[in-house]
Amino acid sequence: MINKKVANITEALEGVSDNMTFMFGGFGLSGIPENAIAHLVKRNVKGLTCISNNAGVDDFGLGLLLHQKQIKKMVSSYVGENDEFERQMLSGELDVELIPQGTLAERCRAAQAGFPAIYTPAGYGTEVAEGKETREFNGKMYVLEHAFKADFAFVKAWKGDTAGNLIFKGTARNFNPVMCGAAKITVAEVEELVPVGALDPNQIHVPGIFVQRIFEGEKYEKRIEQLTVRQKA
């Protein structure tokens, strides 16, 4: 079985350069590839197009890349928690493509499966459909949406083995599985990396065929985006 393990984050990001298109797993701050983002900030790669459900918060997640003006375009669904994102978008510094959340997931899934495009009813009759092909199926109108084309997909899992098989935990599963294999190279960072055979095959969420590189991450903060606690009586 092919060993997908790389020695460190530097080796995992080999080939990354300016003006590339990246996918980032996660929803809010849950399940984001913290190590990969931190290293991209450190390397100061520029002109990035980032495909992600959201843009993190001001001081964490993709917000770190935004603060250093490393992102030129965001392709996202929900962007309401980042003031710097709002400022750059309204000032024209940042190109933004907003996509219905289900469509974002399906365009990732289409790329993963090798489909060039999908038809979806979401957005028909709105600005989302302007300039796009539409077609009627069984009396209902659909919009043609193209599969994403990305250079790297960065995902984060709870456990993985050296063959690239992944297990996600709870809601951190979110967009991570559909982004695996949806780019030319998928880099998975995991909290625990184990030998092949140590994972229960029945518990694996993503098979290693969709992953090219895997490494064990470190120092995960796992921040909570909106912490809500019960008020004192």
UniProtKB/TrEMBL annotation:
Pfam family, one: CoA_trans
InterPro entries for the chain: 3-oxoacid_CoA-transf_A, CoA_trans_fam_I, CoA_transf_BS, NagB/RpiA_transferase-like
A single GO molecular function term of this UniProt record: CoA-transferase activity
Keywords (A to Z) from UniProt: Transferase
Keyword Transferase: yes
PROSITE patterns in the cross-refs: COA_TRANSF_1
Family statement drawn from the similarity comment of this UniProt entry: Belongs to the 3-oxoacid CoA-transferase subunit A family.
Name this polypeptide is given: 3-oxoacid CoA-transferase subunit A
Source species taxonomy: Bacteria, Pseudomonadati, Bacteroidota, Flavobacteriia, Flavobacteriales
